[in-house]
Amino acid sequence: MRRLAIALTLGVLAIAGCGRAPDQPPAQSGAAIAAVEHDATGWPSYGGQPSGTKYSALDQINRANVSSLQVAWTYHTGEISSGTDDTDATVSELTPVYANGHLYICTPFGRVASLDPASGRQVWSFDPKKPRSGNMYAENYCRGVAYWEAPDPQARAAECGKRVLLAGQAGMLMAIDADRGRLCPGFGQGGRVNLAALDYKGEGPLANTSPPAIYRNVVIVGASVTDNKFRNSLDGIVRGFDVVTGRELWSWNPIPPELSDRTGAANTWAPISIDAQRGWVFLPTGSASWDTLGVNRIDAIPDANAVVVLDALTGRRVWSYQTIHHDLWDYDLPAMPTLATIEHQGRPVDAVIQGTKTGNIFVLDRQSGKPLFPVREMPVPQSDVPGERASPTQPMPVLPHPVTSQALTADQAWGAIGFDTWRCKAKLAAFRNEGMFTPPSIKGSLLHPSFLGGTNWGGIAYDPNTGLAVVNSSNLVSSVILKPRAEYDEKRDKRPGVSVYEMRGSPYVMLREVLLSPLGAPCNPPPWGQLTAIDMKTGQTRWQIPFGRIRFSSGLSSPASWGAPNQGGPIVTRGGLIFIGASLDSRFRAYDIQTGREVWSARVPAPATATPMTFRHTDGRQYVVVAAGGHGGFGTPLGDALLAYALPRKAYAPPRKD
C-alpha cells in the first residue's frame, strides 16, 4: 500500500511477532559479507546492492572536494503533469540502475530508457503505453527497474541475455532486452506477465510501486492495493517468476487461509531486499484491510506489518518478526529492509535494520530474526469502537531511540503567532489522545507520528566504515475519525486537506488529515523533518539535525531549524558523504557523515523527491545522479530532469591506462 496525503503550508508546501528460528544451515561469515559491502562500487540494483545498504565504496568525490561538484549532464524525460482529466499528476521518485555500462531508468509515464552514463544521451527507449490517467492514487510514477544478465558469457551475448525488468504501474511485469530496448519474446506472453490477471483472492485493482528484486534466475515482485476501501482487499501475495520464461515459480500469501475471505492486503509495496549469500528474500509487509478498522480481522495475522524472510528459490517462509500487532493506524513497513553486517557485543553480526512509520528502528539478527537490542512490549490504549479489539501491547525498541517525536499534548501545540497556536491547541484538544497507538475512534483520535511517518519508502543507508545507519524522517501530527456512515455529510466533511475513505461494507467512513494551523503550518512543534545517524555498534544516536526547509510563496525559506517533511532517501559513500534530495525546497545536499554538517548543496529544477545513486563509469569519473521532477501529488513545483554531478576533470586524478 502506497501512502500519500496532501496538505498546504502557506499555499505552497504540500505534505502530504516474534522471531522464529529457521531450519537453515549456517550462513557465510559476517566478515565475508562485510567485505562484499565494503567493496561495493557499482549500483546494479535499486538499493545500490541487493542488500539495500545504499552504500558506495567510491571516494573520488569526498569531503575535501565535494564543494567542487558541478552538473555533468541533464536528461529531460519530457513528462510533466500537475494532474488533469486526461493525465494524472507526475511524481518523480526514480533511482537509476548502473549496469552493463549503461544507466537504466524509467519515467513517470512508464517508459524505460537506456542512457549513456557519461553524457546522459538516450541510447534507446521502450514505451509500454501505460495509461496516463486512471492510475492508482491518480499519479504517474516509477521508482526504478531491475537488471539481470545470464551467468554464461555465451548466453549473455545472445538476444535478451541481458534484461531490464519493469514491474509496471498497471500490474504488468515486463522483460526488456538491455542492449536493444525491445521486449523479450520468450518471457510470458510476448515479453509480459499480466500480474493483474492472476488470482490475488480479493477485491480491487493491482499496481506496482517499487522495482522487482532478483536472485539468480528468479524475479520477485510484491504489489500495491487500494487502501481503506475494501474489507477484503487483494491479498498481499508475493510471487517469484523465472526471469527467462516468465513462468511463476512460487507464491507466498501473508494472509492466513482461514482469513482470506474476510480481509486482505498485508502487502509488500515497498522495495524488497536480497541476502545473496543465504538465498533469502526480505519483505517489508503492510497492514491488513481495512487499515484503520480491524473488526473483521480480530484473529492474529503474524505476517502483517512484519519483516518476513522467504527462501528466494522456493518461497518457503524462513522467519518473521512483527513490528505492529493488529495495526489500526496504517503503519505499514514502508521501506526495504537494510541488510548490513554490524559490530555487536564485540563481534560481526549479520543484521536487518528496519525503519518504520512510527519512527522506531528495529535491529534484528539476520539468521534468527531475534532483536539485537532489547524490545519491550508496551501497554497501549484500548479501542472504544464496537466490536474492535486492539492489541493490549505493542513492541517498542529500547534502542535505537526513535527518529521522530512519538508523543504530543494539546499544550505543546505550535503556531507561528499566538492566534495560530491557540487554534492548533483547540484542534489537538478535540481528539482522543492517549499517546502513540491511541486507536481510531468515532470521536476522532490523534495520530502522532502521522500515517506518513516517521520514515517512509526512502529507507535507511548504512556505512560499513563508520558503522552508522542514516535515515531521514518526517515529524507531523494527523487525525483519524471513524465517522458513522449515517452521519457523514459530504458537503461538510469533505473539505480541503481532508482525505475521505469509503471503507465499503463497514458502518463508517474514515476521515484523515494532517493537522495544520490557519496559516498552514503543522500544529506540532518543529523540526518537521530530520536527518539522523545511528551508531549500530551501540544503538545510540550519533547525531540528529533538522532537515529540509519550507519554501514560501514569497520565495523565502523557513529557518533551517524548522526542518520540513520529506520524501526520498539518503545514500552514503566511502568518501565520508551522505547525499540526499528528498526535501521539498528544490535542493540537493551532501553532509559529512561523521558530524552531520552540510558540506555542499545545489539548487535543482524541482524537488528531488527520490533517492540518488552514484557510480564510476569507464571514463574514470564518479557521478552522482538524482531525479528532480517534483511531486504532483503534493503540489510541489514540477520538472522532468535527471541530473548527474561530477568533479571537474582537473579536480581528480584519472586512472592510469597502463
What does it look like?
- By secondary structure, the chain is mainly beta.
- The chain has one domain: Quinoprotein alcohol dehydrogenase-like superfamily (Methanol Dehydrogenase, Chain A, 8 Propeller).
- The protein is 5% helix and 31% strand.
- It has 4 helices and 44 strands.
- The strands form 13 sheets. It has a 5-stranded mixed β-sheet, with no helix packed on it. A 4-stranded antiparallel β-sheet has the order 4-44-43-42, with no helix packed on it.
- It is globular, with a radius of gyration of 23 Å.
- 58% of the residues are buried.
- The model is unreliable at 1-30 (pLDDT under 50).
Could you report the average pLDDT, rounded to the nearest whole number?
A: 92
The count of DSSP E runs of length 2 or more, i.e. the number of strands, is: 44
| Name given to the CATH homologous superfamily | Quinoprotein alcohol dehydrogenase-like superfamily
Just give the CATH class.
Mainly Beta
Rounded to the nearest angstrom, the distance between the terminal CA atoms is 52 Å
* β-sheet strand percentage: 25-35%
| Number of helical elements | 4
Strand order of the largest sheet: 3-38-39-40-41
Query: How helix-rich are the residues, as a percent range?
Result: under 10%
Oligomer: single chain
Short overview:
With about 650 residues, this protein is mostly beta strands.
Topology:
Layout: E1 8-9, E2 13-14, H1 30-38, E3 55-56, E4 70-76, E5 89-90, E6 97-99, E7 102-106, E8 112-115, E9 122-126, E10 139-140, E11 146-149, H2 153-157, E12 162-167, E13 172-177, E14 192-194, E15 206-207, E16 213-215, E17 218-221, E18 224-225, E19 238-242, E20 248-252, E21 273-275, E22 280-284, E23 306-311, E24 317-322, E25 338-344, E26 347-355, E27 361-365, E28 375-379, E29 393-397, H3 418-429, E30 445-447, E31 460-463, E32 468-474, E33 478-484, H4 490-493, E34 498-501, E35 508-514, E36 529-535, E37 541-546, E38 570-573, E39 577-580, E40 587-592, E41 598-603, E42 613-616, E43 622-628, E44 641-646
Parallel strand pairs: 3-38, 5-10
Antiparallel strand pairs: 1-2, 4-44, 6-7, 7-8, 8-9, 11-12, 12-13, 13-14, 15-18, 16-17, 17-19, 19-20, 21-22, 22-23, 23-24, 25-26, 26-27, 28-29, 30-33, 31-32, 32-36, 33-35, 34-35, 36-37, 38-39, 39-40, 40-41, 42-43, 43-44
